[in-house]
Amino acid sequence: MSLKDQLTNDLKEAMKNKEQLRKNVITMVRADIKQIEVDKRIELGDEDVVDIIAKQVKQRRDALDEFEKGGREDLVDQARQEVEILLKYLPQQLSEEEIVKLVSETILEVGASTMKDMGKVMAAIVPKTKGRADGKLVNEIVKKYLQS
After folding, report:
1. At a CB cut-off of 8 Å and minimum separation 6, what does 62 contact?
2. N or C: which end of the chain has fewer CB within 10 A?
3. What is the pLDDT, as a whole number, of residue 148?
4. Residue 112 φ/ψ, nearest 5 degrees
5. Residue 113, pLDDT above cutoff 90
6. Is CATH 1.10.10.410 correct for 96-147?
7. Is the pTM of this model over 0.85?
8. Which CATH number fits domain 3-87: 1.10.10.10, 3.20.20.70, 1.10.1510.10, 3.30.559.30?
9. What CA–CA distance (Å, rounded) separates 56 from 85?
10. 137 by DSSP, 3-state: which?
11. How far apart are CA 49 and CA 37, in angstroms?
12. pLDDT band at 104 (very low <50, low <70, confident <90, very high)
């Protein structure tokens, strides 16, 4: 079953069970998918759908930070629940230890030693972590390694 089919089935299930938040999140994902398919006149595959979902997770995490700064606990809770719903459609997320291991291996691969090599390291590691790790976290770990 493709990821788009799974989203459709989950949307139907959420509607039957009257799960409003889940229904809204899945509807937004499907709207983004449809928008890209119509604009580019292509059929998106699972990898493209994963990219869209990962982008939505990032947007919600960024919003979560802003809501916390603004003291909006109601919106913080909602954003966290939305992220949890979206993460179910992404591949198994890498733990911080796994990311650290990948970063150290990649730094050795590209022969990086200073912060000037940050671009090379990120270019090499992004394909390895795509959809499986938060880019901001990967970036922070790479910086930490290159600064020490």
Report:
1. none
2. C
3. 77
4. -80, 145
5. no
6. yes
7. no
8. 1.10.1510.10
9. 11
10. helix
11. 11
12. very high
